Amino acid sequence: MEKSTIDILWIIIASTLVFIMQAGFAMVESGLTRSKNSINVAIKNLTDLGISTLCFWACGFAMMFGASAYGFIGSDNFLFHPVSIWGAVFFLFQVMFCSTSATIVSGAVAERMKYSSYIISTALLSVIIYPIFGHWAWGGFMEGVPSGFLGKLGFIDFAGSTVVHSVGGWVSLAVLLIIGPRSGKFAEDGTSRQINGSNIPITVLGVMILWFGWFGFNGGSTLAMNETVPSIILNTTLAASAGMIGSLMVGWPILKKPDILLVLNGSLAGLVAITASCFAVTEIESVIIGFVGGAVMLAATVILEKLKIDDAVGAIPVHLVAGIWGTIAVAVFGDPAILNTGLGFIGQLKIQLIGIASCGIWSFGVAFSVLFIVNKISPLRVSKEDEHTGLNKTEHGVTTEIFELFSVLEAQSRTGDLSLRAPEEPFTEIGQIAKMYNSVMRKLESGTVEKGEYLNILDNVSDGLILIDRSGTISQYHSASMKNLFSTELISGKNFKDLLSSRIPENVLAILDEFLEIAFDKKKSFRIVEKMNPIPEIELSFDNLNGGFNVKYFQFIFKRIVKNSEVSRLMIVIRDITRQRELSQEVEENRKRTSVEMELFYRILHVEPASMRDFLTSAETDLSEINSVMSESQTEYYERLNEIFRRIHAVKGDADMLGLDFIAEKAQIMETNVAEALRSESPSNEIFLSLALKLGEIRELLFKIDSLMKKWKTMHAEISDDNRSFLPRALSDLAARLCERHKKSVKVEFDSGNTEEIPSAVFKHVKDILVQLVRNSVYHGIENPEERKKLNKDSSGKIAIKTHKENGKLIIKYKDDGSGLDSDKIKQTALAKKLITEDDSSALTEKDIFALVFRPDFSTSDSVNKTAGRGVGMNLVKTLITGLKGKIALRSKRGESLEFEIHIPIEAK
Amino acid sequence: MTELEIKGFIKVLTDYFLSVTGSPANMGVPFIKENSTEVFDYVAVIGISGSRKGGVYFTANRPLLEEIARHILGETGLDDATLYDLIGEMTNTISGNMRELFGSTFLISVPIILKGNIDEVVLRLKPPVYVIPIEWNGHKSHLAIGLE
């Protein structure tokens, strides 16, 4: 085919215009992707130009435009060498088309496909997919005679709506189905997330370049500079505009905004749609085709989102879908005369659809099959980490300023390392942002490091450290130890007093309330306020929720925090001094115990250990008996009191005998209380409360003495428990003390010589009996020295006690040389106490009268004192002997003596 | 421990019986707790700290508690869980009243309810422990107080 120079020139210009479209694609795709991937996308655009050019030169051109083999594939002109000027020009124009088709893919698969994978897909498209389909549609075009099977059938695709754009779109779809969407594009619920482009202005410029380049793309497809070229370029620009408007008119109401993609991709869709029919339609038809192209692009975009197919730049809606529409539009709007296929509308539409289907089956089929296998061998997609980092860095090792800035920010958010700084590229916006950011970071770092140091201190200090405001609320920062001190996680925001309430008594809490109010009063000198601290050292009781408390001792130190001359906060230092306090308490308790023990020791020092041991045993027996009587609910009220009376009297007597006044006095108080209760005519159990308390006191005292004795015993192992030889001396000592108290003089002669003969089983009772008899003799029987002198008696009285065993009995003979019993006085006392009547008194024998002294409450004493007066002693003697199943006989010689003879069965107890 | 303090504890308990049931409770003859002194079916232990340290326990048999339940809930034949809840409520009220009476100087713990033979250690009362028998509607119970 011969061409004029002007035709050749036009096609060269058209080729350069199509070449410029590569720049447009690079701008559109890199601008619509994130900056971390923008370089990768741009470099892929340049790469596919180079790859596709070489591939198309080596074999693509031959397979597309070589001599047709069965209308399916070109078969010559491999490693293309032009034999004419036109041949070279034609190749130049066609290789640009091939590159255009290849570069469409790079945008769709942007931000996730490996660079190496992209080279494979570009080569596949340039070597096989594009040339073979191109042959079907355009084979023989160089010669002006269709040789491909579609061309022969009348398939019209003037500048490549299907041949160039749909092929690129089908391959894009195949790749996208294999590699999947970008990370984060679709949420788990299926909703799509918009991923914003990095440079929309550059995308806009790219679209304008494409639009401009399209004049060559469509205008050059005449392959001649003829009268149709201006009309084609006019239709092209009208369709682009209509595509933009169509997309906007449909999309704006739906999206509620003039989305930038509506404008950008609407224009491109209009351009793609008009490409097939631009030579055979009118201006109005071009507008309609472009308008519909914009609308179908929008619909396809929505459908792809629904199908979760992530096309990064909208390449499939623009190039595939608008391309299909444009190819159909040939049949719908194309002037049959110009189309010159000899087909009617249906025939043309049918062949157009066959062309579209053939393209889809071939392009998608081959691309999907080959790349699916390749993907299995070597994944087409980059790793998740690489995708996150960005393909600029991971694929090419290059970064952008914004990427560097992001990297620093990300590293900081991940590591918390505030010392990281962003690179400050001078004279760039990002550089300025980085500079400002670094400046902010420097200040933040200095503040944060300072705060971090304080927090470090708070984390490690063992004392509790808190700040409270005027309302008592604890501020956000406090020492970590607070949680341990107060056994709670909730410290911040809590009221300080709430930390203490229920752990210290309410009265202290009330004082603390007043103290805090004063502490915040700046008019009050803090030096004085400090001294008012009600809790400098305080015991805190933590409820262990197990029916008890864990007690701790804390020290509280208050300091004012003054800001702008106002007391803004109080700093409270809380120190756990439990250990120190316990140690000092232990020392103090030891000191007190030692002091008490020493005092006790001095009080009991005069008592022979064996006597003391015996006293402790017998007193504990009596006290236990009293407690037992109290706890027996069946016992009658007065009977119970009488029994207590007798027992406590015995304890008193024993204590008295040993000179243990401090015990005797307590027993005396109990005795008095019981006596009062006995006299009272309204029985009340409340009296027993004070008795129980006193009983407890005496038992505690005995317990302490017992402990002391045990220590003593440890020191003096020779102290024997069973040494009963103390009795004669104890009775002598008792008599001596009573004499001293009552100004008398008495000697006790214990004639058994060996008290060991008294069986231990009855020893306590025998001792108690003798104690009471000695008390009785000294107080009642034996006269004072003056009286005795008047009666020609020795000034010193005598008590003779003899014991021996006889016929299984212990015989005790007791005699004093006192005044004996005064039967008249006994009778009078009994009458006064209404123990007998006047009639009884006249009938009583002396023996009967003497028996009265053993009655409870009977005493001839005029007053009550430590020795006598309660009428308990002789009753106790009688009770004890009765308890031992023994007998007592009494013989009194008025003015001379009083004798008792007691028989106690030794086996009785 | 003073007589006044013990009387305070007794008053809180007897007042509780009177206010809840309308029938007065009577104090028996107090005595000192021995090792052999046994507790009844249920024991409610209340810890005391502050100016005095030690504890108080109230122990009663199931029939007493069931009768009180009848007064409070109007129900009979209560299961163990409900009875525990009731004793918990009862001892909470009693310890709350103790807090009102002694709160200014004493700290009264949240009570715990125990059943059966109680280990002496669990009671944590400071000897000597004074046991005050309380009789109500023919039922026996003990209030024991052991403060240092």
Index terms:
heterodimer; A: 909 residues; alpha+beta; Ammonium transporter fold; Beta-Lactamase; 5 domains; 5-stranded mixed sheet; 4-stranded antiparallel sheet; 33 helices; 9% strand; B: 148 residues; Chemotaxis protein chec; 4 helices; 39% helix; 30% strand; globular
Protein model, in words:
- The complex is a heterodimer of chains A (909) and B (148).
- Chain A folds into five domains: 5-384, Ammonium transporter fold (Orthogonal Bundle), CATH 1.10.3430; 400-457; 461-576, PAS domain (Beta-Lactamase, 2-Layer Sandwich); 585-715, HPT domain (Four Helix Bundle (Hemerythrin (Met), subunit A), Up-down Bundle), CATH 1.20.120.160; 726-908, 2-Layer Sandwich (Heat Shock Protein 90), CATH 3.30.565.
- Chain A is 62% helix and 9% strand.
- Chain A is built from 33 helices and eleven strands.
- Chain A has a five-stranded mixed β-sheet with strand order 7-8-9-11-10. A four-stranded antiparallel β-sheet of chain A has the order 3-6-5-4.
- In chain A, α4 packs antiparallel against α13 (345-377), α8 crosses α10 and α23 (609-631) packs antiparallel against α26 (686-715).
- The longest helix of chain A has 33 residues, at 345-377.
- Chain A starts with a helix and ends with a strand.
- Residues 717-721 of chain A have low confidence and may be disordered.
- In chain B, strands 1, 2, 3, 4, 5, 6, 7 and 8 form an eight-stranded antiparallel β-sheet that branches.
- By secondary structure, chain B is of the alpha+beta class.
- Chain B has a single domain, classed as Chemotaxis protein chec.
- Chains A and B meet through β4, α23 and α26 of A and α1, β2, β3 and β7 of B.
